Amino acid sequence: MRNVKAKMATHEMEQDISLQQGGTSRRLSRRLTDPAQSTWASLHTDLLDLIASRVLASDLLDYVRFRAVCLGWRVMTPCPRGRGVVDPCFHPRQWMMFPEGDGLYPGHPALLGYVRFFNLSTGTFVRVRLPCFRNHSVLDCPDGLLLLRDNKSTAIRLLHPFTGDVVLFPPLSSIFPQLAKLGCFISDSDNIQYTRFVRGSVSVNLAGTVTMMLGLGRLDRVAYASTGDRQWTPTSWKMKHLYSALPLGGSLYVVDGGWGLEPSRVLRIDPPEDSNPSSWSVIPPQMVTQCPVELLRSPELVECNSELLLVGYDSEHSKIVLFRVADLLNGVTTIQLTSIGDQALFIGACNMAVNSKFLPSVQGNSIAIVNEIGGGVMGRGTLPLYDLGNSTWLQVFDGNFVDSPMPRPYSLVLHVTTCCHRLFWNSGDILCFKQG
């Protein structure tokens, strides 16, 4: 497997991160670098490994800062660069690419190749130079990695934004001849439209082979490719309607069905087995649980506090209901989740949980509905906020982010809202930040 050193990311991660800590931290780092002035450099290897693993479990960039304390710590701990994609421990799961607003989409000439990233747990910002956006578009951000498509060849690249590691996959256009064999004919003019709405899941086997699974929303199918493959392999089976998808633990969880009163179920799609990859495309996935349509309408999957949740409307479409998938799996439908702590859920084309402490206009224990097409209690282009604690609705801002310019000044919550819609990442005509 070729793990190509990315020319896409031209920055030095450790240097960039250390410069953001301010003069005091830089002086402290220089002081700790001298072993004569600190006993920290002589920590026992086992203790150092334990601390490093806990820091890495918290956040990748904290781990980078940890390695920068002194030369001894740097030598004794693995470097993320070169392992950024092939070692899941180094995936930046809590980081999301941050749209700038004012039409400054990633790759806009005014940004000079720089892109900012936002930590959903800590509110930290990091700026990274990624000149690849001159000829690539973002399809998804699985595990914090950037799933990129070449605008001309449709070749797929999985890029670690902080280490610069990149893994290559076949052109996405290779899937269409295979779909034609399955009776699914798509014109050339529709190819791009059918591959825009994807959710990706990345997994790595013991041999270091990276596998990507793509949930193709408009095709109601899933496709996969591994490093070294020449084409993407689609499923021969088809879902009724791929309503929602979420990568978790190397698998892809999807809601099959979900429109109106249509029965829906949660499926778990695992990557192909090394011993028998050909069976993956013909054997339907296992059902995790059935969604209780009498209690939950328009179900969406979201991960929050390390749990897989289902969120949707009640039968009257007036309230938001929230269930743990684990409870539904055990047949428990009477327990609705009423508290998610300081987290705020954003539900849109992609769903995410954000620490509300860093969003001044959004309170904790709430759910924001990125209402692009209308429905529910609010109209199209609105951002209603549901308080789980007292079952009430609020309006985050006065405006319509679809049909009219957004009122200024732009708040952080509006930037986070655009993270729920990948189309806002790839075009200068970003509707929710369009200038009047």
From TrEMBL:
Residues 17-26 have a biased composition (Polar residues). Residues 117-370 form the KIB1-4 beta-propeller domain. It comes from the Eukaryota. Pfam families: Beta-prop_KIB1-4 (PF03478). InterPro entries: KIB1-4_b-propeller (IPR005174). Residues 1-31 are annotated as: Disordered. This is KIB1-4 beta-propeller domain-containing protein. It comes from Aegilops tauschii subsp. strangulata (Goatgrass). The lineage of its organism: Eukaryota, Viridiplantae, Streptophyta, Embryophyta, Tracheophyta.
